[in-house]
Design brief:
With about 1050 residues, this protein is mostly beta strands. Among the domains are: about 90 residues, Sandwich (Immunoglobulin-like), CATH 2.60.40; about 60 residues, no CATH class. The protein is about 5% helix and about 45% strand. It has seven helices and 62 strands. It has a 22-stranded antiparallel β-barrel. Strands 3-2-5-6-9 form a five-stranded mixed beta sheet, with no helix packed on it. The two termini are about 45 Å apart.
């Protein structure tokens, strides 16, 4: 059995590819012993194999690129196949016939490269450097992958949306290393396209090697060296002046805090930057009211080549970027009431990015690669609000943070024998927030909730009038600091692959993966924060504290009360030092029968746990691992079927089935298990000398914080929920079914169709579970606890089904939140529904590889994503990133419409139709023109009512129709001048939104501008009258939103970017 000298595992998403096939004589008989050699400018050394007794060969561990394959056997003409293009993770079948010859001869066939991977059910798309560098693109690797069918960059999905999923549900790999953000989810590292070789997004059908993704898998491969030295010097420039950016878009400005609630359509060019108004400057003179002066410069410097030819290659890059904004601002409402003067403020952003990659083939059978990527950024300076309502004493010019962000990878592929190989993928990623430029003073923080001017005649204040202040006075503008926010991941993956022939070809693969996660943060109050309410009473505890208490009571405060955040009882803010790990094992068999039918059979199992974010073991139910899933709880089967219809790789049909489990994001643990600390210690204020409270600034000094007053108790606003984890909790899971076909249309063209359904099986969320308890006076009180559970399962079910949720309630009178009178009526409470999300789509796409001076692609997607749960990033909350603790199930009514039907319908990020096209053409005289174009349905528009501090969809989803259909295009032009040999100089221009589209992109969907609540309305929801009355009720309360169902934003204006490039 022949095997490539150097190889890697067969899995379809590894960062390498393979070519296999069969060599036959002119009579169709197999030719054993044929020497097969592959060379490419992208391959260190050569890849070689020898055909087995069946004439089968395999070339493994191939980086993507264009290959020349040589087939040689004494007595036969040597055959050379050149121009064979291999893409990331692709398996190509290349069958050849050798003709007998009396003397050595060679035949070279150029082109005829296979296009279709007939052994894979994976559906996605690869974009190579040759493709994306001729198209309009942003300054991040994810800026072009939205051209792929089913893949969108949406404003309300907290990142990239793949097949209806949200941003935190994707997995990201760089050079084979997993760099996915494990705290929030999503892509944590921004790498510019000029430093990449290719990017692949896989939407469906991936094998058991990959888990943790209910969306897509994004594979990024960095550039490598070669046997020749090559490099680039690139510069980009952009600004916001009118010759590089269009007129600002009109938007709806809302100022609900102004008298009369101001709503007006404005644009900044007319409102603030009319180019004629003269603004008085602080130092004298005037300046014309022009746009803030924004400019951005970016450089890319790269060099690649060899250290030892055919043995050791290198590629290195440096990518600095700098932007700044100069702006005129004032602090007196732009002189609308009183005269004002303007000052110049500067905000700066800097990026110091770079990468290095080594590729090696030290000896036969072993290939190594190592890479390091740094994407460091920081900012210095901030701009006050353009409306002139900022705080003048704040040090705007000093504000800033540093954001280190680094990753490294190591890959090794080693052939142990002719039928066994081993592959290792290792990685490390770390990001931090540090070097805060403005820290709070080294002293306690004080703020007055109410003024103490009413105590001006008190003897103490007569002697100390400087200690009298108005409401909202505070001792300094800052009371919290971020000392660090470091989170990182160490990933390891080891695969063993074994090939055998039994009723066809089997490629068996077993693997194990292990990730270690560390998550450390201090964003909080370094000193006590004291909030004083003069002459007031606190009623949050079971007894009054302050002036409203009985004078004989110890909690009577003649001067009011105060509370402290950050104290001897608890820190305040986001403070933790936590770690976790997860383990995965998988087994996969790719079984090819009769060279046409391939079955991909796999099983994956994962174990994971959620760590505690506090070490305070006195909390009820405390556990260092409050949520744990073992391998048996996450069994994920994978099945794929592929059929090569004609046996020549020109047409394949395929189908796949799989179960996919999410890897829990640690943000759930932050909010639920003690990471976010929200504790207030409440005191009766009995001594007017408030300066003595926490005067030494120490967090752990209880006596100093009491300072002659009386501690009454503490309020815990986010108490850890160790004792409220569903004992039957199961991991978030999704089922996927897909079918499709792919047809080769010509030398470089293909057409494909895919039907896919992705069904959410269950989710993990914090659910508001309602139950009852008896008050001391004998009345019954409804209360709510938040449980970590699977909505609609476990404790969130009604009591009669084994859960904790009450089912009915008889109204006993005023103490009952569901009624205002003792009417004796019994109401059926709505049980917590299951989390639902279903995605259906049909993708039709055409691709044309670059040949005859042009390339292109076009696709159409019909899709529908509907249900009551948008995903780990909430499109119902405008893209809020809160995986595991979103609001969908916080209140009993939120999963229903106003008639009591379980909420369903198109989710806020649903788009029915999406058209995409891209292409580029290179003219013989050096000009290349590329363009991308999009057309898409608008988002659904749904009436939202703000109620009980949450939201409610009384009319169901999409009752107001959809936003308008939007079409736009971007264009890129590059003129390259060949200087001499391999030296080239070029200039390029990109224009985004060259169509100057200004279609409406959002509307005001909330019927009321502020929330309301009340027992009467709870009862109306339950008896079905709320949906009839809510508009009248809201109008009567005077809180209706005057711009309900009116538009508020439009598509962004056009902009340009200029670039220069020198290459060798």
């Amino acid at each position: 059995m022949g095997l490539a000298v150097a190889g890697t595992a067969f899995a379809q998403l590894t960062p390498t590819a393979r070519i296999n096939g069969r060599v036959a004589d002119s009579q169709g008989g197999p030719l054993p012993g044929v020497s097969v050699t592959a060379t490419s400018p992208k391959l260190v050394g050569k890849a070689a194999a020898v055909t087995d007794t069946s004439g089968v060969y395999r070339l493994m561990a191939l980086p993507s690129g264009t290959y020349e394959i040589t087939f040689a056997l004494p007595g036969f003409r040597t055959l050379v196949r050149s121009g064979i293009l291999v893409e990331l993770s692709q398996t190509l079948s290349l069958n050849v016939t050798l003709e007998a010859a009396a003397i050595d001869e060679q035949i070279t066939v150029v082109g005829q490269s296979p296009l279709i991977d007939v052994k894979s059910t994976v559906k996605g798309q690869v974009m190579t450097k040759e493709t994306f560098l001729t198209l309009p693109r942003g300054r991040s690797f994810d800026s072009l992958i939205s051209t792929i069918p089913g893949v969108q960059k949406e404003s309300n999905t907290a990142g990239l949306s793949v097949d209806g999923a949200t941003g935190p549900e994707n997995m990201f790999y760089v050079d084979g290393a997993d760099i996915s953000d494990f705290h929030y989810g999503g892509d944590p590292q921004n790498i510019v396209l000029e430093l990449l070789e290719e990017v692949k997004v896989t939407a469906s059908g991936y094998n058991a090697e990959y888990g943790g993704s209910m969306g897509g898998v994004v594979n990024v491969i960095t550039r490598a060296g070669s046997n020749e030295f090559h490099g680039d010097i690139i510069g980009y420039y952009e600004n916001n002046q009118k010759y590089m950016q269009g007129a600002s878009r009109t938007f709806l400005r809302q100022d609900i805090y102004s008298p009369g609630y101001v709503y007006e359509y404005v644009n900044y060019d007319e409102l603030y930057f009319d180019g004629t108004t003269l603004l008085p400057l602080e130092g004298g003179g005037t300046a014309t009211a022009n746009r803030d002066r924004y400019s951005r410069f970016e450089g890319v410097f790269s060099l690649g080549g060899y250290i030892i030819k055919d043995k050791l290659w290198f590629f290195g890059s440096f990518n600095p970027a700098y932007s700044q904004t100069l702006a005129l601002r004032d602090f007196n409402d732009r002189g609308l009431v009183d005269p004002t003067t303007f000052q110049t403020f500067k905000a700066k952003n800097k990026g110091l990015n770079g990468s290095i990659r080594l590729s090696a083939a030290p000896f036969a059978g072993l290939r190594l690669a190592a890479s390091f990527i740094n994407t460091f950024t920081n900012y210095r300076g901030a701009l006050p609000d353009i409306r002139g309502n900022g705080t003048e004493t704040y040090e705007w010019g000093r504000e800033g943070y540093d954001y280190p962000n680094m990753s490294a990878s190591l890959t090794a592929d080693y052939s142990l024998s002719n039928n066994m190989l081993i592959s290792y993928r290792g990685g490390w990623h770390e990001q931090d927030t540090t070097n805060e430029q403005i820290a709070p003073p080294d002293a306690s923080f004080y703020r007055f909730g109410t003024t103490n001017s009413g105590f001006a005649s008190d003897p103490f204040f007569v002697s100390n009038p400087d200690l009298l202040h108005s409401a909202a006075w505070q001792s300094n503008p800052l009371n919290q600091t971020t000392l660090y926010y470091k989170r990182g991941k160490v990933s390891n993956n080891l695969d063993l692959t074994y090939y055998l022939n039994w009723a066809g070809e089997h490629a068996l693969k077993a693997g194990i993966g292990y990730n270690y996660l560390y998550d450390n943060r201090f964003t909080g109050a370094p000193h006590p924060c004291v909030y004083i309410y003069w002459g007031q009473t606190n009623s949050q505890l079971d007894y009054p504290v302050g002036v409203g208490a009985d004078p004989a009571d110890p909690y009577y405060g003649a001067y009011g009360y105060y509370f402290i955040r950050g104290s001897f009882t608890s820190g305040y803010g986001s403070v933790w030092d936590s770690s976790s790990n997860n383990l995965s094992v998988y087994l996969q068999d790719s079984w090819t029968i009769d060279d046409r039918l391939t079955l991909n059979l796999g099983l994956r199992a994962e174990s994971q746990y959620m760590p505690a974010f506090t070490d305070e073991s006195t909390w009820p139910g405390y556990a260092p691992k409050p949520i744990t899933f073992d391998l048996g709880q996450s069994l994920a089967p994978r099945l794929g079927v592929v059929y090569d219809v004609f046996g020549d790789s020109s047409l394949k049909v395929f189908g796949s089935f799989g179960i996919y489990y999410d890897i829990m994001k640690l943000y759930l643990g932050q909010l639920t298990f003690g990471g976010s600390k929200r504790v207030e210690d409440i005191y009766a204020l009995q001594d007017p000398d408030w300066t003595q409270i926490a005067s030494n600034g120490l967090l752990d000094d209880a006596a100093n914080q009491e300072a002659g007053n009386t501690y009454a108790g503490s309020m815990y606003y986010l108490p850890p929920s160790f004792d409220r984890v569903d004992p039957d909790l199961k991991p978030t899971a999704q089922r996927e079914i897909s079918f499709g076909a792919e047809k080769k249309l010509g030398e470089s063209m293909s057409l494909s169709v895919r039907l896919v359904n992705k069904h959410l099986i269950r989710a993990i969320e914090d659910v508001g579970v309602y139950n009852t308890e008896v008050n001391p006076d004998g009345t019954i009180r409804v209360y709510q606890d938040f449980w970590v559970t699977n909505p609609g399962y476990g404790v969130s079910r009604p009591i009669s089904e084994g859960g904790e949720f009450i089912e009915t309630w008889t109204d006993p009178g005023p103490d009952n939140r569901f009624g205002t009178a003792d009417d004796g009526l019994t109401y059926d409470l709505w049980p917590c529904p299951k989390a639902t999300r279903d995605y259906w789509a049909v993708n039709l796409s055409f691709e044309k590889r670059f040949s005859h001076n042009w390339q292109g692609g076009a696709s159409y997607t019909w899709s529908r994503v509907y249900g009551n749960f948008s995903g780990l990033g909430s499109s119902d909350e405008g893209g809020r990133l809160g995986p595991g603790v979103e609001q969908d199930f916080d209140r009993w009514f939120m999963g229903y419409d106003g008639l009591g039907d379980v909420l369903t319908g198109p989710l806020p990020h649903d788009r029915s139709h999406y058209l995409k096209a891209y292409g580029s053409y290179s003219f013989p005289f050096g000009l290349t023109v590329g363009a991308v174009a999009y057309g898409r349905s608008g988002f659904p528009v749904t009436t939202k009512v703000l109620f009980n501090s949450k939201y409610f969809y009384p009319e169901g989803r999409a009752d107001l129709g959809r936003l308008p259909f939007t079409f736009w295009a971007d264009i890129y032009m590059d003129y390259t001048l060949k200087i001499a040999g391999k030296y080239r100089a070029s200039i390029n221009l990109q224009i985004n939104n060259v169509t100057n589209t200004d279609t409406i992109q959002s509307k005001i969907m909330t019927y009321n501008r502020s929330t309301f609540s009340g027992n009467t309305y709870f009862r109306q929801i339950l008896d079905g009258t709320f949906v009839e009355n809510y508009k009248t009720t809201i109008d009567g309360l005077g809180i209706n939103h005057a711009m309900y169902n009116e538009w508020d934003t439009r598509f962004a204006t056009w902009s340009g970017r200029l670039g220069l490039k020198f290459s060798f």
